[in-house]
Write a structure and sequence with these properties.
By secondary structure, the chain is α/β, with parallel strands linked by helices. The chain folds into two domains: about 140 residues, Lyase, Ornithine Decarboxylase, Chain A, domain 1 (Beta Barrel), CATH 2.40.37; about 240 residues, Alpha-Beta Barrel (TIM Barrel). The chain is built from ten helices and 18 strands. The longest helix is centred in the middle third of the chain and has 20 residues. The N and C termini lie far apart (about 50 Å). The mean pLDDT is about 95.
Length: about 400
């Protein structure tokens, strides 16, 4: 007889195991932080951040690893990554200033945003940044005028299917357009340095890397035929973390990518780069919130917490589904989780299974280390989550 799977039990069971594993791996360091008087709070495991960076470096030994600062720009995170020798990918003067102030080395800074404010290009150039991404003739001209003789690398468009946070529409060009951009850069006295792509944030589809590396190899050869000697391949980000499902590991992706490189780049580029952001910090953070209310709306059970999509959980609007855990026993019920603001868009999650909570209970949101506090505002007068490193 076929056993019927109880979706609620599977979902909550996964979250409970994840929570217990998170605590077990950090035993002796986190327990006293789990019930703060004031919430919301984002607990960030700084030792875990260092460990995850070193894991990426171990599995991608031939790559220069640049942490994408936009994922989590807390000073404790940046300082920790400086200590283990990480490079940094920045997109603004503020990010660059912070990295340098906290000890980052300018020679380990790149900027992969293909469309940059002129003021940032000028600031970065004055500080010593000499490598910039482009994906248009306009951007090449801008860099030539503001940052002459810089190295430029062109971003190509690649598939983002299977990525929870696609990035394929806003940036990137075809292989043919990329050749034209690199030729134009060369004509203007810039250095056509390489190629970059992004398979999409939180990517669990190895096929995206397959197509991206294959297209990069095609562009590499077309550029060589035009007399352009490219030197660098940047594979962007995309390393996923565990939300309410298991994800590809760093080892899985590295093994696959290295095989692709052997096939499509028998002569390895002079420099290989990768830019993990979420993959380094995402599963090193846990958001501690409190239940502030609950209600029955028709057939739906609503649970309200003291943070929301405007105060740190913006990615919920784009489809990211966090694991939620509540330290109670009892029958599981299906909940819609509403945020703290009075805006009707402030819905953190639907179809979440939890035991019956009470006002004042702590609700733990796992895998909250990336794209939470950096997105947060004080909308409606409610505070951003405080970051507590441990």
């Amino acid at each position: 007889m076929t056993k019927v799977v109880n979706y609620g039990e599977v979902q909550y069971g996964f979250a409970k195991r994840y929570f217990e594993e998170f605590l077990s791996e950090r035993k002796g360091r986190i327990e006293k932080l789990l019930k703060p008087e004031k919430t919301p709070v984002l607990l960030m495991d700084i030792q875990g951040v260092k460990k995850k960076y070193l894991e990426v470096k171990y599995h991608f030994p031939e790559f220069n690893v640049y942490y994408a600062v936009k994922a989590n720009d807390d000073e404790s995170v940046i300082r920790a990554l400086v200590e283990v020798g990480a490079g940094f990918e920045v997109a603004s003067s503020q990010e660059l200033e912070k990295v340098l102030r906290l000890g980052g080395k300018i020679e380990k800074v790149i900027s992969s945003n293909p469309v940059k404010p002129p003021e940032f290009i000028e600031f970065a150039y004055q500080k010593g940044v000499r490598t910039f991404a482009v994906d248009s003739i306009t951007e090449v001209k801008k860099i030539k005028d503001i940052a002459p003789r810089s190295k430029v690398y062109v971003r190509i468009a690649v598939p983002n299917e299977g990525s929870d946070w696609p990035l394929s529409r806003k940036f990137g060009v075809s292989v043919e357009e990329a050749v034209e951009i690199l030729e134009y850069a060369n004509d203007l006295g810039l250095v056509p340095y390489g190629i970059t792509f992004h398979v999409g944030s939180q990517c669990n589809n190895l096929r995206n890397w397959f197509i991206a590396v294959k297209l990069s190899a095609q562009l590499w050869e077309k550029a060589r035929a035009k007399g352009l000697k490219l030197q660098m391949l940047n594979m962007g980000g995309g390393i996923p973390v565990r939300y309410n499902y298991e994800a590809l590991s760093v080892e899985d992706i590295a093994y696959y990518v290295k095989g692709l490189m052997r096939k499509y780049f028998p002569v390895q580029p002079y420099e290989l780069q990768i830019e993990p952001g979420r993959g380094i910090v995402g599963d090193q953070g846990i958001m501690v919130t409190k239940v502030i209310g609950k209600a029955k709306r028709g057939s739906e059970n609503w649970l309200y917490i003291d943070t929301g999509v405007f105060n740190g959980l913006a990615e919920a609007l784009g489809g990211i589904r966090y694991p939620f855990f509540l330290e109670r026993e009892g029958e599981l019920k299906e909940w819609t989780i509403g945020g703290v603001s009075c805006d009707s868009m402030d819905v953190v999650a639907k179809n979440v299974y939890l035991p019956e909570p009470e006002v004042g209970d702590y609700l733990y949101i796992l895998s909250a280390g990336a794209y939470t506090t950096v997105y947060a505002s004080n909308f409606n007068g409610f505070p951003k989550p405080e970051v507590v490193p441990f």
